[in-house]
Amino acid sequence: MHGASTGTCYRFADTSSEFDVLNPKLQGGGIWVQIGVGVLGAAGFVDLPVRAGLVALGMTRTWAGITRGLWLVIVGILLAFAFPNSHPLIQRVFALTYPWLADQRLLQVASIFASLLAAGGLVLVIDWLARQRRQHASTRPVATRWLSIAVALVVLFVAEGSGVSIYKSLAQAGESEGSFSSDDRVVMAWLRQHVGAGETVANDAAVDAGIWAPYKADVHVLLPRSGLEPDPAIRQIVRDNIADLNAAPVAQTEACLLRLSYVYYGSRVFEDEVHHFPPPPVLAVSQGLEEAFRSGNAVVFKTRLRCD
């Protein structure tokens, strides 16, 4: 899931195939395994019981109160939206906060707190093993040596699971979820230099990097993520007629009031989103637009509005 909701309440159970892509070792493991591995920050099936044990130990630490509470809250929220649920309140909360309660985001945050708890559990294990080593160093030197090796292996095993696996998971999630590319960065720099004060850039809601233009290029956009702009229905009419605003009087009038100067089409457009802008080849031959700048697949079109 990559952009704004269009009225449908998406759930974790509806997107388990996406989780499989980010976690190929877990394909076919079932949603409970997916959730368990995700909220514990485990690297896979082998790592799962070790991580579960360390998290459980970490939750017993006196300093873990806030971390434990936040992790339990996140897990609870995740479970509330993990399965098909027709309760109006659940659907309403999910729709209002979309995409911030989408499954991958919650799992990523949960894994961070789980790693903190696991670190606390690991400290307990190391402390116990150290005490055993001191007590039996003189009477059982061979056993003590093997105990030291076991401590080192446990530390390395958990470090790999907490460090490398989480990094890989976040990197893969960023690659699959991110809409902002190097081409978009170049186009944003161009917009920053060419969009005048008070002018507006048309974006196709949140389906591509255009949603980030206010932050990357310091420009106003037609449909910001906040959804607090006045007359959103009229702005959507502008979006729906973006190829030829002069042919739609309502859209033309609103576009002129907004001083809509440019149209942004991002380099990465996700197929599972609802698209309202025609593809760039169609926009390029539109009578109401002309291509102003391009970097790779990211394109900016200048509007040809007839404003009185």
Tell me the layout of helices and strands:
Elements: H1 16-22, H2 31-40, H3 47-58, H4 65-80, H5 88-97, H6 103-136, H7 141-177, H8 182-194, E1 200-202, H9 213-216, E2 220-221, H10 232-240, H11 249-258, E3 260-265, H12 280-284, E4 289-295, E5 298-303
Parallel strand pairs: 1-2, 1-3
Antiparallel strand pairs: 3-5, 4-5
Q: Which structural class matches the secondary elements?
A: alpha/beta
Helix proportion range? 40-55%
Task: Count every beta strand, where a strand is a DSSP E run of 2 or more residues.
Answer: 5
Largest sheet: 5 strands, mixed
Specify Rg, calculated over alpha carbons: 26 Å
Query: Count of helical segments?
Result: 12
Mean pLDDT, to the nearest integer, reads: 78
Number of domains: 2
Question: How does this model look, in words?
Answer:
By secondary structure, the protein is α/β, with parallel strands linked by helices. It has two domains: 166 residues, no CATH class; 122 residues, no CATH class. It is 54% helix and 8% strand. The chain is built from twelve helices and five strands. A hairpin with a 2-residue loop joins strand 4 and strand 5. The longest helix has 37 residues. The N terminus is likely disordered.
